[in-house]
Write a structure and sequence with these properties.
With about 575 residues, the chain is an alpha/beta fold. It has helices at about 30-40, 45-55, 55-65, 85-90, 95-105, 140-145, 180-185, 190-200, 215-220, 245-250, 255-265, 280-295, 325-335, 365-375, 375-380, 415-420, 455-460, 480-490, 500-515, 525-540, 545-550, 550-555, and strands at about 80-85, 110-115, 125-130, 130-135, 230-235, 270-275, 310-315, 360, 390-400, 405-410, 430-435, 470-475, 570, 575. The strands form four sheets. A four-stranded mixed sheet has the order 2-1-3-4, covered by helices on one side. Strand 6, helix 12 and strand 7 (about 310-315) form a beta-alpha-beta unit. Helix 7 runs parallel beside helix 11. The protein is globular and about 70 Å long.
């Protein structure tokens, strides 16, 4: 895949620092291909890539050093990755890691690494053997298969019945799906009416930003009419506890792709991408099969659905890094740069991929569009509880009997969702909950009747975030749990801005010193230092990672909770939007 680059287009204010960046095409797909073929990136291959693409070797080395997926040394025959983040930690990951080290630590054929979230929190503690994901209990069989080079590709586990947001009957095929797209391309529905319906429905960005979807589509459609535009589905969920998009991609590839294609047709984009994390290999294969079928049927291509319009969708595989969930870091990656967030404004809707207007929405957001267009804005609004609208997917993990993905009416209470997941393990009481993933502040057992919605959770000092509800049983060390979360943010900081890079490291050192001392309680001096660091990071970090990294820690200290979410960022016209993740 080649990404084009426009030269000579006037720069807009706020992007002057980008003038010195290397123009495309992006080298990342080529680096991914080399590593997929060889398992690593040998020096001679990089030199050949440099010669072929006429790009300096130091540019290539700069990319490799930034992205954690790239290797510059040959891997062992068997690579074992074990997750140590919150959902797995709550399921005794530390004990499993110790057992695995004792069993395989001296084996020269095996390379063992502790890693951040693999997106398999429903099978915690999660492992991957040669990128084959599985619960830790299945590691021995996978290692044995990998030794003999007999490790099969991992499959996916899907549903037989459609989720509530799927307008198509179970077992329906391609011919009866993509109805909203066909109607739009046939002129039976106008782009303006699609935007109006989405605006009336109240659908908001489900990746954590919460920006009104219809308004975003309208803004991108109105920007440079007739010019080159792009659309991107952000499928890079990689925050601890978050795996709902993985299940949506498995069960509803048709809805995700139809929503993306509708966004392209409405805004005037001819090229779209699904940006997916490299750990989602099984789900990537599901998407590629669906796209191949669409091309064969003429639904996408140079003459999409016989409309004379070009609509093409490709897949861009992430080279790793939680920061790429932030929309501008994602754009930097796709352009072939280090994934460091941009300052805003300008926003991607005005100045996105290669400086062109770009529509970016999450997996769940795109998947909700077809049913809204078929059943109407009023129907969607009626699906929520109380004043809330629509359906909402949640990934539920931690100390619950049945971790998994649940689709419930928006506005469902925390308590009801925990009950749906079978309650707390062993009949224990709830000690605390993170309702919106690692970025969200913890709430106590006295807040279980909170409605899961953007406004109600924000008022309670936390946020809906990525739709990842992590349950901690009574008696769990909350300071240790929040320190585990902070370690993730410290490790995943891109390092671009000092407050995030230094602040997260300093705060983690303070917390680790306390936990390692055995006291389990911060003294007043350390509490004051943590609060000072939280305020500095929240107010001065460039993107949402640094702005929320210490919120979970502060929330368990019984102190002023500080930032419940990334700070609002101004948009043209005086409105504000939370930065995408």
């Amino acid at each position: 895949m080649t990404l084009s680059f426009e030269v000579g287009r006037p720069r807009v204010p706020g992007v002057e620092a980008r003038a010195g960046k290397f123009p495309g095409p992006s080298l990342i797909p080529a680096l991914n291909a080399i590593q997929a073929r060889l398992g690593w990136l040998p020096r001679e291959e990089l030199e050949e890539l440099s010669r072929t693409m006429r790009r300096p070797l130091y540019e290539i080395q700069g990319l490799i050093s930034f992205y954690p997926h790239f290797r510059t040394t040959a891997p062992a025959k068997v690579q074992v990755s074990v997750c140590h983040d919150l959902s797995c930690w709550l399921r005794s990951a530390d004990d499993r890691i110790a057992e695995i080290r004792a069993r395989y630590g001296d084996d020269t054929e095996i390379e063992l690494n502790e890693v951040s979230c693999l997106g398999r929190c429903d099978s915690a503690p999660a492992v991957a053997v040669n990128e084959h994901p599985a619960p830790a209990a299945g590691i021995d069989a996978l290692v044995a298969a990998a030794r003999e080079a007999e490790l099969d590709e991992a499959g996916v586990t899907g549903r037989t019945e459609p989720w509530p947001n799927d307008p198509y009957p179970a077992g329906s095929g391609l011919a009866s799906r993509y109805a909203s797209l066909r109607a739009l391309l046939a002129g039976e529905v106008s782009a303006e009416s699609v935007v109006a319906t989405l605006e009336a429905s109240g659908l908001r960005g489900m990746g954590g930003a919460g920006f009104p979807t219809g308004r975003k589509w309208g803004l991108v459609a109105a920007t440079e009419p007739g010019g080159v535009k792009y659309a991107i589905c952000n499928a890079d969920e990689s925050e601890p506890g978050t795996f709902k998009d993985r299940q949506i991609l498995t069960d509803q590839p048709h809805l995700v792709i139809e929503g993306l294609l509708l966004g392209m047709a409405v805004t005037g984009a001819e090229q779209g991408w699904i940006f997916i994390r490299h750990e989602y290999g099984p789900e990537e294969r599901v998407l590629r099969a669906e796209l191949a079928a669409l091309r064969e049927a003429g639904v996408i291509g140079a003459d999409a659905c016989g409309s004379g319009r070009r609509l093409e969708v490709d897949i861009f595989v992430s080279p790793g890094g939680y920061i790429l969930g932030e929309e501008t870091a994602l754009l930097e990656c796709m352009e072939g740069h280090r994934g460091e967030p941009r300052n805003k404004p300008p926003f991607p809707g005005n100045y996105g991929l290669h400086g062109r207007p770009t529509l970016i929405n999450s997996v769940e957001t795109f998947a909700d569009v077809p049913v809204i267009l078929q059943r109407g804005a009023e129907w969607w609004a009626e699906q929520g509880e109380g004043d809330s609208v629509g359906w909402k997917f949640f990934a539920v993990s931690g100390h619950v009997e049945h971790p998994g993905v649940y689709c419930v009416p928006m506005g469902t209470t925390v308590r009801a969702l925990i009950d749906l997941a079978g309650g707390v393990l062993g009949g224990a009481q709830v000690g605390a909950v993170q309702p919106g993933g690692a970025s969200s502040n913890f709430i106590g057992p006295d807040r279980l009747d909170l409605a899961l919605d953007f406004g109600t959770l924000a008022e309670a000092g936390t946020m809906l975030g990525s739709g990842a509800l992590v349950v901690l049983a009574e008696g769990t060390d909350l300071l240790a749990a929040s320190t585990n979360v902070l370690r993730f943010f410290r490790n995943e900081s891109c390092g671009k801005c000092v407050p995030c890079r230094v602040g997260s490291t300093k705060a983690h050192e303070l917390l680790r010193e306390t936990l390692d001392s055995g006291s389990g309680t911060l003294d007043e001096a350390r509490k004051g230092r943590i609060l000072q660091l939280e305020e500095t990071m929240r107010k001065t970090s460039i993107c949402g990672l640094g702005q929320v990294a210490l919120g979970p820690v502060v929330s368990v200290l019984g102190l002023d909770k500080g930032g419940a979410a990334a700070r609002p960022q101004p948009r043209p016209g005086g409105s504000a939007e939370q930065p995408d993740r």
